[in-house]
Amino acid sequence: MLETAELGRKVGKQEYKEQVPLLRTELLLVQNQLRNSAEFSAIVIVAGSDAAGKGRTVNVLHEWLDPRYLQTHAFDQPTEEESERPLAWRYWRVLPPKGRISVFLGSWYTEVISARLRGELDEAEFKQALAHLNNFERQLTDDGTLLLKYWFHIPRKIQKKRLKKYASDPNQAWRVTDQDRRNLRHYDELLPICDQLLRETNAPHSPWFLVEGSDRRYRELTVGRHLADAIRNRLGVQPACPAPPVVPASLSAIDPEQPTVLSSLDLTQHLTREQYKSELEELQARLNWLSREAHRKHVSTVLVFEGADAAGKGGAIRRVTAALDARRYEVIPIAAPNDEERARHYLWRFWRRLPRAGNWTFFDRSWYGRVLVERVEGFAQEAEWRRAYEEIRDFEELLCERGIVLVKFWLQIDRDEQAKRFAEREKVPYKQYKITEEDYRNRGKWDQYEAAVNDMVEQTSGLQTPWTLVEANNKHFARIKVLRTICDRLQDAVERKK
Amino acid sequence: MLETAELGRKVGKQEYKEQVPLLRTELLLVQNQLRNSAEFSAIVIVAGSDAAGKGRTVNVLHEWLDPRYLQTHAFDQPTEEESERPLAWRYWRVLPPKGRISVFLGSWYTEVISARLRGELDEAEFKQALAHLNNFERQLTDDGTLLLKYWFHIPRKIQKKRLKKYASDPNQAWRVTDQDRRNLRHYDELLPICDQLLRETNAPHSPWFLVEGSDRRYRELTVGRHLADAIRNRLGVQPACPAPPVVPASLSAIDPEQPTVLSSLDLTQHLTREQYKSELEELQARLNWLSREAHRKHVSTVLVFEGADAAGKGGAIRRVTAALDARRYEVIPIAAPNDEERARHYLWRFWRRLPRAGNWTFFDRSWYGRVLVERVEGFAQEAEWRRAYEEIRDFEELLCERGIVLVKFWLQIDRDEQAKRFAEREKVPYKQYKITEEDYRNRGKWDQYEAAVNDMVEQTSGLQTPWTLVEANNKHFARIKVLRTICDRLQDAVERKK
Fold first, then answer.
1. Under 8 Å CB-to-CB from B385, ≥6 apart: which residues?
2. If chain A, 498 residues long, is cut into consecutive pieces of 10 residues, what is the mean pLDDT of each piece?
């Protein structure tokens, strides 16, 4: 998930100066409303990388909110008192009453991460600890608590620079602890741990919000606004059931001007016809060899192709299947579910199409329809598509555990390119069938689809289940990137398998 | 949980004969309604001990329901096809469509139990596997599936007898597999595994129903009736949110005439004054010694006393504290929560009173108020007290993991004894303060309280967190049983602790 927090989002000095007074008024207002209504309590968890600005952001919150009704709890090594009780005791005893906001710095996440890093927890124990945390958080949100979890992230390079700068400044040297130095040294081990933690504790009732920590003004405004929005949205909303609390979908929605994973793509990348031809030939040969190896070693492959209409999914798939044995693969185009499928869980139709050992399934559109078209068109209720992120993570985790290679592509084109391709399809007789009324309707919701794609990538990218975003304005470039990605992933899987 | 399925519940021949035709009509009716409405699918899981009548019950369901719309799936060793996919594949592919009922014999539980028994899963992996099952079942129920899980249980003695009888009958010998024989040999290892499995997968959205398997007529009628009730209750109820599906609270509610854990207690047990005095002295001396050992070894103790008004909770507690060092224990009487407590999660006030290492906390009434008085009086909503069973299990599990000795008593008296004690309190001046209007009001809801207590014991008794049911009509007998139980549990904990 973390790559979506390395986009270089920032806020200018001038804008910050203008926004802060408005935000402060808003924050004080909602804090006061919350206190008067005493409907629920709010817990703000601030966690993430060292030197990503966690402490400073909390200080700013104390400045902006009424500090008499705001409490911050930081937790270090358990005290003697604490170590005599179950570890959860120290969190339970300081839970805020209804009407109040508490900030937990680090909180229950810090200790699980450290224990895993030190090897005190093995993989299964780590998962179990995370499951415990999920239970705990569900108890809180079932009880009505508004739980807001912010994960601050900065790339390693910036982290290193900052720690160095702090250490050399006598006034800031205290900021750098031995633990920080250790974490920096172990950055590469820490990353997969944090990634897993973020995925497994990213429940619909208590989602994580990834905050880019590089720019001070950006992170402060973003967290402040999101906090104000979340409290305001919940106030006066008496939920009929403990189902998903009302929080803004993601931080991207807070400021649509900020770069996103999609807007950060360089769509001008392209290949000449000659480059394309020679690379295509080479990659297809490599893929063919790898596919035979994979079959011999019983490695199955599942491929997901998503993208806007006319993004070139079909064309890319054909360039892959051209290198494969026709008996070994199946291409499943996913349209609206039929009656048999509609009568069951939406994942059912994907489960049943999983390939046998050594074989391939291509999904031309996939289970991600749940959080894309079904979300945008309102075919799925909000509670349904929100919990789908977790359901999809579970599903993909089972595939990976079974050793199946899962490769997921999002083919990105811009609006102009799509218009050009639609026009072209209308001209070419054998392409006309491809273009429908619906395509034009979808086009009208371009921004909503983009927001849904951003959330999808943020919520469902894991180290083992990454999204490959493909710059697809140039078909040559896109197809080569797809082929190369598949070859690399497959080679890796084949080599690891004895 | 399993002890609540060894009560000797049975149904006479005549009653069975009268009931079956009615039940069959009812079952066919709801099955037909379900099919026409196609609102949801129903999955019936039949699991439990060998030779407990699982297969026969499923056969009877096929007789009673319209078999054209009922499918049964049994799963053995994974086939070649199955073993090439994630294990969940074989369950996903046979999920019933809306409107249909499927029976899963054994189902996903069989394989986890076997793997744990064979030692292929260690403790943490087993827990993780159970967490996966919970996720899977939650996905099904979130999607609207009515999931009914029946666990058939028979005591070891009966199991052994039955297997022997089958084996010696040429027409039935096929019923006894090698696996059955192995399981019988490992009964004592199997018991804690099943106990843990039942507790950890007993989620509010997919609770287990324990079926006594000893009497054929009882188990068939009970499962049949419960199934019909559950489907009828859900039909036409369009849940606003995926929260707890509407199912009858427990099997005890199906036939109030059957014995329960409470009704099975022999309340005539008593001790003479002399027996009492000598045992009291001896046990208090033993407890005093044990308490000093516990303090030295940092073993903490948490005691829960629940029981009807005037059941003798206070008197029993005083006989225990008399043996302890006054600096080391605290007695916490639990009444209606105060403002500070009401503003937080209901477990908060118990968390904060946990004892320091080597100390004691007595809860005179406890967190079980949530599923007793709050349930019966309607102070908690149904969704709240239903999910409380799981919250309480989580809470108590954390105590046990931390090495805290948790002893839970339910003091049971009958209505006549209570009336006698009330009258006595009114006569004795220094006891009058104890008796309030409320006591009489509670008395009017005796049956509802009994049902709540039965559910509580069934849902929250674990091997590590057992309920001790105390026959309390005779105060002497009750106090001695309480003292002896505490001594035994504490001695065990002290000896285990290095």
1. B370, B371, B374, B375
2. 79 93 92 91 93 90 90 85 84 90 90 90 89 89 92 88 84 79 82 90 87 92 92 70 50 74 91 95 96 94 95 95 91 88 88 90 96 92 88 90 94 94 82 70 84 90 90 97 97 92
Q: What sign does the dihedral B308-B309-B315-B320 (CA atoms) show?
A: positive
For residue B361, the 8-state DSSP code is: E
CB A222 within 8 A of CB A10: no
Q: Structural domains in chain B?
A: 2-253 (3.40.50.300), 273-496 (3.40.50.300)
Across the interface, whether the CB atoms of A97 and B124 are under 8 A apart is answered no
ipTM over 0.85: no
Q: How many residue pairs bridge chain A and chain B with CB atoms within 8 Å of each other?
A: 134
Determine how many CB atoms are found less than 10 A away from the CB of residue B189. Answer: 12
Only one residue has tokens 């292929």, namely B120
* Chain A residues within an 8 Å CB radius of B243: 241-243
CA nearest to A245, candidates A25, A457, A32, A43? A43
3-state SS record for A22-86 = HHHHHHHHHHHHHHHHCCCCEEEEEEECCCCCHHHHHHHHHHHCCHHHEEEEECCCCCHHHHCCC
pTM greater than 0.90 (yes/no):
no
Long-range contacts of B443-450 (CB under 8 A, 24+ apart): B443/B309, B443/B415, B443/B418, B445/B376, B446/B415, B448/B376, B449/B308, B449/B372, B449/B376, B450/B260, B450/B262
| Max intra-chain CA distance, chain B | 79
DSSP assignment of B274-307 equals HHHHHHHHHHHHHHHHHHHHHHHTT--EEEEEEE
What are the φ and ψ backbone dihedral angles of B94, each rounded to 5 degrees?
A: -105, 15
Which residue of chain A has the CA closest to B241? Answer: A241
Cα B210 to Cα B229: distance, rounded to the nearest angstrom = 16
